[in-house]
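Protein in question filed below.

…
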Amino acid sequence: MIQLRVGSHPIEAELAATPATRDKGLMNRTVLPDKRGMLFVFPDERPYCMWMHNTTIPLSVAFIDSRGAITKIAEMHPGSDDYYCSDKPVRYALEMNQGWFLKKGVTPGARIRNIDKAPPGR
């Protein structure tokens, strides 16, 4: 787990920093507490895509560059095999309950604090 913050909003994020944990993500879960999310840590900064295969919780994903700046937020649909991709090179993706970023007024350009404490992606 890692404690993150965007603006005044705390986030408790599970880490997905290995191929196995990134592949599994939030699959087969039925609930995600409100301030909880999952931080996907990639081994290098480049464009990445996410998907919702076997994921039943509606999620939003924020794509984040190596400086901690959100570059894009996408609304993802449960059970979909569609790809949701970053528009720019990113180092991280943060999944939260769908609509969380919108409800908190978090938009592209916002900075995720403490993201530099995440382990390196493998």
